[in-house]
Amino acid sequence: MTPRYSAPRDLVGVTAALADGDGVVVGGGTMVVPDMTHGRTRAAALVDLSRAGLAGVTAGADGVVVGAMTTYTDLVEAGVPLLSSVATGITGGPQIRNRGTAGGSACYANPASDVPACLVALDARMRLASAGGKREVPAAGFFLGGFRTARRPDEVLAEVVLPQLGNALLGYVKFKLAESSWPIVTAATVAVPGTALRVVVGGAAAVPVVVAVDRPSAGSGDPAWRDHVREAVHTALDAAEPWSDVLAPAAYRRRIAPAIAARSAAHALEEDR
Amino acid sequence: MAAPTQPDSAIGGSARKRDGAALLTGRAVFVDDHQPTGMLHAQVVRSTVAHGRILSVDTAAAEAAPGVRLVLTGRRAAESAGPVPYFIDPAARGGNRTDIRCLQVDEVVYVGQPVAAVVAETRRQALDAAALVAVEYEVLPHVLDAEEAMLPDAPRLYPEWPGNVVMHNRYGTGDTDAALAAADVVVSGELRIGRSTTSPIEPRGYLASWNAAEGKLTVHASCQNPHQMRWMLATSLGLDEGDIRIVTAKVGGSFGLKMQGHPEETLVALLSILTGAPVKWIEDRRETLMAGARQQVHRFTVGAMADGRIVALVDDIVADVGALTAQAGWAMPNMSATTLPSGYLVPDCRIGLDIVVTNKPPVNAARGFGKDAAHFVMERAVDIVAHELGLDPAEVRRRNFIPADRFPHRTSTGLNIDSGDFVGLLDKVLDEVGYAGIRARQGGLRHRGRYLGVGLGFELTPESSDSPGTFVSGFDTTTVRMSVTGMVTVLTGVTSPGGGNDTGIAQIVATELGVPMEWVELVQGDTDRCPNGFGNFSGRSMVVGGGSATLAARDVRDKLALLGSRMLDVPVDRVEVADGVVRVVDDHSRALAVPDVARALLTRAFAVADGIEPVLESTRAYKPGNIDHVPDEFGRIQPYPTYSSSLHAAVVDVDVETGKVVLLDYVMAHDCGTMINPALVEGQARGAVAMGLGSALSEQLVFGEDGTLLSDRFKTYLLPRAGDVPELRMVHQVTPSPFTMHGNKGAGEAGVGGAQAAVANAVEDALAALGVRVRGVPLTPPAVLALIDEAAAR
Ligand SMILES: Cc1cc2nc3c(=O)[nH]c(=O)nc-3n(C[C@H](O)[C@H](O)[C@H](O)COP(=O)(O)OP(=O)(O)OC[C@H]3O[C@@H](n4cnc5c(N)ncnc54)[C@H](O)[C@@H]3O)c2cc1C
User: Fold this and answer.
1) What is the torsional sign of CA B351, B355, B361, B365?
2) On chain A, which terminus has fewer CB atoms closer than 10 Å, C or N?
3) Can the peptide bond before residue B778 be classed as cis, meaning omega within 30 degrees of 0?
4) Across the interface, do A177 and B657 touch by the CB < 8 Å criterion?
5) At residue B601, does pLDDT exceed 60?
6) Interface of A with B (CB under 8 A)
7) CATH number of the domain at B296-467+629-793, out of 3.30.365.10, 3.40.50.300, 1.20.1250.20, 3.40.50.10420?
8) Per its UniProt entry, which superkingdom is the organism in (chain B) (predicted)?
9) By three-state DSSP, how is residue A202 classified?
10) DSSP letters along B225-280, please?
11) What percent of chain B has pLDDT above 70?
């Protein structure tokens, strides 16, 4: 059966088209279109965001506002903290970076992807819109499990708000099995001067996991600090739902997560820049 | 190599691929580009259970779906088509067989086995309707692991067999027990080679057009062996061979996968006959990835003397070939066994092989053809011996190589190696990779927490095989035809999967005939036009295609020379044909253009060619030497004329926190005898090495417990990308074969096993300080980390 298709001209049109709760949102389409081709997604109605004016990055008083349809390429050009460097490393190359969106990635909520943990690290706020109104959900509360988010079927992610980071330092490390692989474990570090490091680990559990890590006093190679990171990461992971896929079992993800977290911290602290 | 003054089109020159421009600009026509009027699309309905009895197939909903022309069940197919004949019949080699059907009738033995087919007006309609075919199964117990399949109470794939073993064979000569008892050290180990696959960029596909009025069938196929396919379709469909035409002109890579014998070949032809319309089926990537290329377990014991000389080799191989196939893939493990002693002087060998079926899709023929496994295992064994004796692995190889002056050399398993200089390859590769320097740097780096390793892998690649009574043929046939305008058409029985042998053959013909290469047109892969031949496999195309083209070109050249000499009024031994003219050897000013001589012969035969048969065409077959099917006193035959050789060195850096292996450098020293076209040789070698590197580090077909393939896309089946592979550096050595026309040997397969071995040995070398012992491939990061943890726990 061919689904109903609409490409509303604005957000109001989008929320109206989604009001029945049976619509599938098409962002850049890099995931949802192949999923339909292979029969993994069956839709009664398709709501295409490409004409709804949801792309673009604007700086506002309370932070940077990233429209849900902002592509990876747009992010690179706009120089959005953390997300722009993540965008350059998206495996799919120009085709995917020119179409894929960070908003789409967030809504897809694949644990083995870059964006979710970054949004949590940045303390992003997810602006959801429906015919009934708008609401804001913190990124940390948005990701509920593997491929599950707080977004209701009648809602669209309209924008992502990234609060001002001040003079925080950022670090990011992604570990893949090979160039073509999904991310296996990622770690984003936000280092606000004078405070402990905030490291958010992705891929090691069904949702991004926040870990508070002390700053290394004797460099990131210090075995004692490494032990501390391992303990902190493992404690955080113990409280989270484990994640496995065909590329790597949960035990492996857990095993390497501390090393990736430590590298990301070192990256933020510019040790290896 | 070519002297610098020679043109690129000469033998030894790196002429560019003739179809390069067409390929790069998207003008090359592949099977999926053919769109005859009225064409329909087929979709295969595949088993969803790993083992089961088909209780019912309900086609009603599919038949009622939009655009559907035909829904075919296995039962109905069996009324119109017989079994698919084997490329290599196991029964002919004393093994167990089963009838291979284009659609299963009663039982299925793997997830993905064809059970029904849908033909519709569009591909989309066929896909949708295929999902509506309801197949009910009585689920039977299944077995996915070959060693479990060998247990007495294991589920049986084919109830009429005594077990799940296709065949058990023994190979080798000598007294290994005595040799092991006399050895200074005895080492043993177990190695597992994971299931990987070939992944050509173009999947399989067939377009069959049945002409009911004439009773003729034309099939465009992405296939390596058009003539064999014609015979196979004639057999399975009960047609006359003469009523079938197979065209395989452009193929987007095949690597063995597209050797004939797949159920869909008969199926698509049958669908066209039943619908009376052209029917196309193009495989989906998920279907391509079902095909395995290799999966084996080896348990080996090696005895060596204190100086490193290996005196005995015992190996027991369990080869998992998935379900049985009519394709050649099930036979590959035989070559794992016969190639095992490789290029080493190992006097006593005892190798046992069990070829075992499991409830997984078939292992199909794949580049390496089982020889890759032999190199992986033997090269690991050599490194373990070196480790045990405290000797450098390079030195142990040097001490065991068959010396360059001892060829031809017959190995314990019966292979008669034509020629080689393996020590020469070793010296070249050590020099190029900077072996001594790496060894010197390793210790210092290790103190800084870096684990750098270097590994070697030797590979002996038997090529151009001949298997009596099968369609694995060691000869081939070519026609060279010159027209009245002097243009040359070469029609050959060998086909090109995209590697460029058409360019190489054109170079040979141009050189032998003495005309510019642009005058030469090549026709391959058309059973109505080309002489009977066998397509491409086993590195044969330049050996037998090139050899037969040489013979035929020389015939035509001789005719030109004879007539030309008469027209120039000199004795024939005073003329030569070169640069497009027939000329007097010591007076180039006296010359006739080749087209003028051709026209004279073909239009003035009675006037100028008295006593000369006026035909500028020759069809010749070429049989290389060194093939011997008379069993010797040990029952061994010698099926390969040539043996290419290569030595691989990999330099790796292992991240001990994640298990990730990063390739820093790679050198292949390669010897395939005379190179007809070095650029094409290097292209093939790089591809084979990349395939070996992928299967060594990241490629792995993963099945769920229910037998479903989980790694069914390129995001889960990880091929190496440019960023994973360093520049693959090539060094050449030329040891001509005494048994082939130009001294060339097979080129195209060498690299898979050598790369696997070099990487595995490099990883073990990098992690030597941690006591890691590599036990298989692929060495994915989780696998390497598990090895590190295991070593730490010891
Ligand atoms: C070849 C390839 C390589 C890739 N490499 C990487 C990589 O290295 N790292 C990585 O993290 N990811 C990678 N990805 C995934 C990529 O990040 C996502 O495909 C992309 O970001 C999804 O964005 P999209 O706009 O195309 O989403 P779509 O495919 O349009 O949608 C994805 C899902 O989100 C929903 N959706 C989309 N937008 C909205 C919205 N605004 N509101 C509500 N719901 C919405 C859709 O309904 C669908 O369920 C890769 C993908 C491919 C195909």
Assistant:
1) positive
2) N
3) yes
4) no
5) yes
6) 38-39, 175, 177-182, 184, 221, 245-249, 252, 255-256, 259-260
7) 3.30.365.10
8) Bacteria
9) strand
10) -HHHHHHHHHHHHT--GGGEEEE----S--TTTTSS--HHHHHHHHHHHHHTS-EE
11) 99
Please identify which residue in the block is written with the tokens 């398709």.
A46
Task: Fill in the DSSP letter of residue B514.
Answer: T
Ligand 1 interacting residues, C-beta cut-off 6 A: A 24-32, 49, 68, 90-92, 96, 99-101, 103-105, 107-108, 113-115, 151, 156-157, 183
* Closest A-chain CA to B780: A177
Q: How far is B786 from chain A (nearest CA, A)?
A: 9
Model ipTM? 0.96
Q: Kindly report the number of other CB atoms within 10 A of residue A187's CB atom.
A: 34
Which 3-state string (H, E, C) describes B348-402? EEEEEEEEECCCCCCECCCCCCCHHHHHHHHHHHHHHHHHHHCCCHHHHHHHHEC
| Dist. CA B429–CA B96, nearest whole Å | 44
Partners of B690 on chain A (C-beta within 8 Å) are none
CB contact set of B671 (below 8 Å; sequence gap of 6+): B420, B421, B424, B425, B644, B645, B646, B732, B733, B734, B735, B745
Residue nearest to atom 13 of ligand 1 (CA): A90
What fold, for B34-140+200-288? Aldehyde Oxidoreductase; domain 3 (3.90.1170)
At a CB cut-off of 8 Å and minimum separation 6, what does B213 contact?
Answer: none
User: What's the rounded mean pLDDT across residues B743-762?
Assistant: 96
Cβ–Cβ gap A177/B710 under 8 Å: no
- The pLDDT score that the predictor gives to residue A256 is 98
| Shortest-distance Cα residue to atom 10 of ligand 1 | A113
Q: Is the pLDDT of residue B6 over 80?
A: no
Domains and CATH numbers, chain A: 4-162 (3.30.465.10), 169-269 (3.30.390.50)
At residue A183, what are phi and psi to the nearest 5 degrees?
-55, 140
Q: Is the pLDDT of residue B4 over 70?
A: no
Arch. (CATH architecture) of B20-27+475-622: 2-Layer Sandwich (3.30)
CB contact under 8 A, B698 and A181: yes
Joined together, the tokens standing for residue B295 give 């999966």
Residues of A with Cβ-Cβ distance to B714 under 8 angstroms: 180
Q: Which pLDDT value is given to residue A272? A: 43
Distance A260 CA to ligand 1 centre (A): 24
CATH 3.90.1170.50 spans which residues of chain B?
34-140+200-288
- Whole-number Å distance between alpha carbons of A229 and B92: 63
- Tokens of residue B682, six digits: 């290097």
β-partners of residue B69 are none
For residue B47 the two structure tokens come to 């088993």
SS3 for A2? coil
Q: Which residue has the tokens 């033998």?
A: B11
Burial of B161 (0-12, 13-18, 19+ CB in 10 A): middle
B270 burial via Cβ count (<10 Å: 0-12, 13-18, 19+): buried
Amino acid at B46: R
Q: Where in chain B is the domain with CATH 3.30.365.10?
A: 20-27+475-622, 296-467+629-793
Residue A149 CA, ligand 1 centroid: distance in Å: 14
